[in-house]
Specification:
The structure holds two protein chains of two kinds. Chain A is built from seven helices and seven strands, in the order βαβαβαβαβαββαα. By secondary structure, chain A is an alpha/beta fold. Classes of the chains: A alpha/beta, B alpha/beta.
């Protein structure tokens, strides 16, 4: 684990700061992130295709593939965590072309998405799956900004403080999962 | 005629409501113990940190009474309805669905169901998937499984040919877990249904996920050996907690078997993420 660095980042992220990230780096992200998953991605791409205005600026945006539980009384947000990113792959290159630079989720991305990331110095960060009570503590404010009619799939703007993430795909085409699955890791430990 | 035991539908609704709220906020001791045991086997800092996070999350959710995962699932129920029970006060099925509706509303659980074609949310997390079996006795046993979508998506049903045999089954199980990789939120629990028909194998695999995480729960010696071997093979994949690499890719493998047609070998591999929520009640 030679790359076990801890890196503090703020949004909007600079191209320079993203280019310094390497697979396996731990990132603590503070700032504004936008939630969006399946239905939101379809709608965003439809709006782009039809030349309509988007509900938020994609320029240097951070999208978190997430849909929280309803907010109980007295809380900022319900439980929140990443959904499987691969379902958004079909839409992602279009959004990267339009300015998306940081994606937060879990699971593998397609070759097309990784190529688009390398072209535009975008990065894909992993959030831990299934630890949504813990992650909710990192959210200081949350509000719905679009597609309220889609219930949990609405687009939200979150303010996060030191959201704990791990670099899965860096700007150089590196992939954390490829370094651990099957090959070298198993030989090392078995 | 023997006397029937009367059970009000309102009791069924209340029980179902409570089960799904408890399951979502308070993960069972069996899964917590399995994660603690995983921690003793993991060596890398990253894998250990991932498991520590899972354990802390479970503790926090219990204390704060909030869901351990934002995906509070599609509500799956296994119900054993005693044949000497007389359900009074309305429809049995409606009572179960109402319990699910109230759990997801009153428990602040996420409504994660939609029309498969229009993708429009159903708004109340119904309809639940209910598997009902009529059994002897005058009790109702209700098992609730809020099933997350990420691990369900990586599950597989396959009609193997009989010549594929046991080795074909083992390969399908390990290959399914390998393909799922990080997507299914490992360490996973693997439910394997073997035999029956296409849908029977899937129901067996799902029911296997409702079992407590206890190696001695499996009473069939051969199946227990098969479960042990599959678990070893899966953990040799090196996928590890969160797919970040590690020794523990699965916490358990549960196999259920029933007879099948002489020409077929149906197998379903149903994956369950580490947030393995299941709760039961007997009325």
């Amino acid at each position: 684990m030679k790359n076990n660095r801890n890196i503090v980042m703020r949004t909007p992220t600079s191209e320079e700061s993203r280019k310094r990230l390497r697979v396996g780096d731990r990132v603590l992200l503070t700032g504004t992130v936008i939630t969006g998953r399946d239905v939101a991605h379809r709608k965003l791409c439809e709006a782009i295709a039809e030349g309509r205005k988007l509900p938020f600026a994609l320029e240097d945006a951070v999208i978190f593939y997430a849909a929280p539980t309803p907010t109980p009384p007295g809380r900022v947000i319900g439980s929140i965590g990443p959904t499987t990113s691969g379902r958004m792959d079909r839409y992602t290159p279009t959004l990267i072309e339009k300015g998306l630079r940081v994606m937060i989720g879990k699971g593998r991305r397609s070759g097309e998405v990784r190529e688009a990331m390398a072209r535009h110095n975008a990065v894909y960060l992993g959030a831990p799956g299934g630890v949504a009570a813990l992650l909710a503590l990192k959210v200081s404010s949350a509000r719905v900004i679009a597609y309220e009619e889609d219930g949990p799939e609405a687009i939200m703007e979150l303010k996060v403080i030191e959201l704990p993430l791990l670099v899965i795909n860096d700007c150089k085409g590196g992939d954390l999962y490829e370094t651990v699955e099957g090959g070298p890791f198993v030989e090392k430990f078995s | 005629m023997e006397s029937l035991r009367e059970i009000e539908t309102s009791r069924i609704t209340d029980a179902v409501r409570d089960l799904f709220i408890q399951a979502s906020n308070n993960l069972g001791e069996d899964v917590l113990e399995a994660l603690k045991s995983a921690l003793t086997r993991e060596e890398s800092r990253r894998a250990r940190a991932a498991v520590v996070e899972m354990i802390e999350n479970i503790t926090l959710a219990r204390k704060e009474l909030i869901p351990i995962c934002q995906d509070t699932g599609l509500a799956v129920l296994f119900i054993e309805l005693g044949q000497d029970v007389h359900v009074i006060g309305g429809s049995f099925t409606d009572a179960v669905q109402e319990g699910v509706r109230r759990a997801y509303d009153e428990g602040y659980l996420r409504k994660s169901l939609c029309d498969p074609l229009t993708r429009k949310n159903t708004g109340d997390n119904t309809p639940a998937v209910i598997h009902t079996e009529i059994v002897p006795g005058d009790r109702i046993r209700i098992r609730a499984l809020p099933k997350g979508g990420g691990s369900e998506n990586m599950s597989v049903s396959r009609m193997l040919v009989p010549s594929a045999g046991l080795e074909g089954i083992k390969n399908l199980v390990t290959e399914t877990v390998r393909q799922a990789g990080p997507n299914a939120c490992p360490p996973v629990i693997v439910g394997v249904g073997i035999g029956g028909t296409l849908e029977k194998s899937a129901i067996l695999a799902k029911r296997a996920l409702a079992r407590p995480l206890d190696p001695d729960f499996q009473t069939d010696e051969n199946l227990r050996e098969l479960e042990r071997e599959l678990l070893d093979r899966i953990n040799d994949l090196g996928i590890g907690p969160q797919g970040y690499g590690g020794r523990v890719t699965a916490l358990a493998v549960h196999v259920e078997v029933t007879a099948c047609h002489i020409s077929s070998l149906p197998v379903t591999v149903n994956l369950q993420c580490h947030a393995a929520r299941h709760r039961e009640a007997v009325l």
